[in-house]
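Possible regression after last week's pipeline update?

I re-ran a chain I had predicted before the update to compare outputs. Posting the input and the new output here so someone can diff against the archived version. Not blocking, just want to make sure nothing changed silently.
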Amino acid sequence: MAKGSARARVAALVKRLAPGGSAAEHAEAAHTLGRLCFDKGPNREYARRCGGVAALVGLLAPGGTDAVHMHAAAALRSLCLANAQNQDGVRECGGVAALVRLLAPGGPAALQQQAAGALSDLCRQNGQNRDSVRECGGIAALVRLLAAVLVPGILHAQTCQRPSCLALHSRRAAGVRGRRGAGWAAGARRLACRA
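New output (post-update):
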């Protein structure tokens, strides 16, 4: 895609994020903008200059649909990859608090995953954003989310008697871990037990 046409497409997508559009239009525009910015640094810059960061943070406001929130969080994640100015812009527009709010218990898992991922990318090499996440209650929300995922897997590992699970559980009891430690092993046990 030529440089000029990519910029025109980014600008058009940012316009579609403006208030007044339908939820489906907002979700689709946020999704497409996130894809355009995922691996293209110049698109991230241009999206910010066109007002894309503020528009995406605006879509995270209470009252929006889960699909809009999820695609806006995913797009913010893409815009913040290796881009300190976009990371700061999200914080300055109130995006940290909005993303932390999406981690509330009972929300859709896919939405919580995107919000947690966006917070991770916002905090990468950015101490001010890490402080902001802490001040907004994000650490407690992330720990609660992590516990909701890991604790059921650990409890399952203690009680499961399925043959497909026993091999994994016995490896764990013997101290055999994957390359990344116990967290990944718990996830693997849960997946194997669902099969």
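Follow-up from reviewer: compared with the archived run. The chain has twelve helices and no strands. Marking as no regression found.
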